[in-house]
Amino acid sequence: MRDEEGDDGDLAYDRDLQEWPQRGRKILLLEAGTVLNAKDARKAIQAGAKFLMSPVSVKVYPISALGGAQYISAIKKPFSHVPMVASQGITIDLLETYIIQGASAVVLSDAIFSKEAMNQSNFDAIQQLAYLSALRGGEAVERKRGKNHLHVV
């Protein structure tokens, strides 16, 4: 459906929300879900929304069972505006692959808090793994930024 401005949107839904109180119905609280941009937020507020919901990020779990980094890459194509957090079974060596393929963040709990280190209370090993993860994560983000800013001359 297109609204008067020629934009995709649900004008009928917006109009229904605005007319609801005029039809003698009471609205205690109206919430707009999945608001993705400022224009949608303004429309929801004009329609009477008292609070808005916007996805901050989507946790993709269990990523290893869903297809790994290739799955992140595939679902980022239609949902490029949604930050995705890859979770479960990711190793430090694969961290960059997930970031380059489109993950906004990765959960490395199994990689950092290895069962062996935890069973031995080896907090030095955990600290080293956390440091290595942060270092590699930062490098991956910088490489991704570099790829996104490459210009062909």
Give an account of the 3D structure.
The protein is mainly alpha-helical. The protein contains eight helices and five strands. The protein has helices at 11-19, 38-46, 63-66, 68-76, 95-100, 109-112, 115-119, 123-148, and strands at 31-32, 51-52, 58-60, 84-87, 105-107. Strands 3-4-5 form a three-stranded parallel beta sheet. Strand 4, helix 5 (95-100) and strand 5 form a beta-alpha-beta unit. The model is unreliable at 1-14 (pLDDT under 50).
Task: Tell me briefly what this model is.
The protein has 153 residues and is mostly helical. The protein is 47% helix and 9% strand.
List the helices and strands and how they pair.
Layout: H1 11-19, E1 31-32, H2 38-46, E2 51-52, E3 58-60, H3 63-66, H4 68-76, E4 84-87, H5 95-100, E5 105-107, H6 109-112, H7 115-119, H8 123-148
